[in-house]
Write a structure and sequence with these properties.
This protein has five helices and 23 strands. The protein is of the alpha/beta class.
Length: 271
């Protein structure tokens, strides 16, 4: 029923009884969020929002400023007016009682949701103090698989090499090998090899690959991939590129090049 409804339910169920912030779990900020929290608390705003730029603002809330203040919010505009900013997934609210009152004045949008943009607009229209800051560095919203892969690239671009697991094969470049991981194959950084992950002798990990906890890659080649916890990849002569493999899934491919999006606990076999 929308972000505003989720906030309202948290207040009504007693989870919030003082100033609070909301950070959407699929929003990532290069700089982190400590600065946002500090600015919200130090300035005593009724509402605080974090703005950013987006290549496609039609996918998000859109904020127009006037005289240095937010004055108009539009949810997923078809034709965004020039000069505005994208509303990121971080918000601060001073008074939960007032937020609940504002919510009760809202109506569902055409999408059937109680929009966070409408909730914030309620405060603006009634003259409450709505502060903002603009992100420094990149911001990513994980709305699509390609967004998730973009985040992998951005994060891996910043890794510093660290080896705590066992390397019996070869590691080149900026690679993190966590404790309990075993590398018998070849890993070309930037890459991340999670705790307890195993890379076989015939496996080649070729740049921008994130292997999370307990993954097994028996053989074959991976490039620009995210493989989640306890997935098992057996590729023989095959190659995976620009792929996401869900937790505890099994992928078995004999030859060819594939780009896959595989959910959790699935089996993909072409042998």
């Amino acid at each position: 029923l929308g972000i505003a409804h989720a906030i309202y339910r948290a207040i009504e169920e007693g989870a919030v009884d003082r100033s609070f912030v909301v950070h959407l779990g699929d929003n990532f900020f290069e700089e982190g969020v400590k600065r946002f929290v500090r600015e919200f608390l130090e300035n005593d705003y009724d509402v605080f929002i974090v703005l950013t730029r987006s290549k496609d603002p039609r996918r998000f809330g859109y904020v127009l400023l006037r005289d240095g203040r937010p004055w108009k919010l539009i949810e997923k505009p078809r034709e965004p007016p020039p000069g505005g900013y994208t509303l990121s997934g971080f918000y601060g609210f001073k008074d939960p009682v007032l937020v609940a009152r504002a919510f009760r004045d809202l109506k569902p949008s055409s999408r059937g949701e109680y929009e966070i943009t409408d909730l914030i607009q309620w405060f603006i229209d009634r003259g409450y103090s709505v502060g903002y800051t603009i992100t420094s560095g990149w911001w990513k919203d994980m709305g699509t698989p390609s967004d998730l892969l973009d985040l992998v690239y951005l994060v891996l671009d910043r890794v510093e090499p660290r080896v705590e697991g066992e390397v019996r094969g070869e590691v080149r470049g900026r690679v993190i090998v966590e404790q309990g991981a075993v590398v018998d194959g070849v890993v070309h950084g930037p890459a991340y090899v999670g705790r307890g992950t195993y890379i076989g002798k015939s496996a080649s990990i070729e740049h921008y690959v994130d292997l999370e906890k307990g993954v097994v890659v028996e053989n074959g080649s991976l490039s620009r991939c995210l493989v989640l916890d306890e997935a098992h990849v057996r590729l023989s002569k095959a190659r995976l590129v620009d792929s996401i493999i869900g937790a505890k899934s099994v992928v078995e491919l004999s030859e060819g090049t594939y780009s896959l999006i595989v959910g959790e606990r699935n089996l993909v076999r072409r042998w």
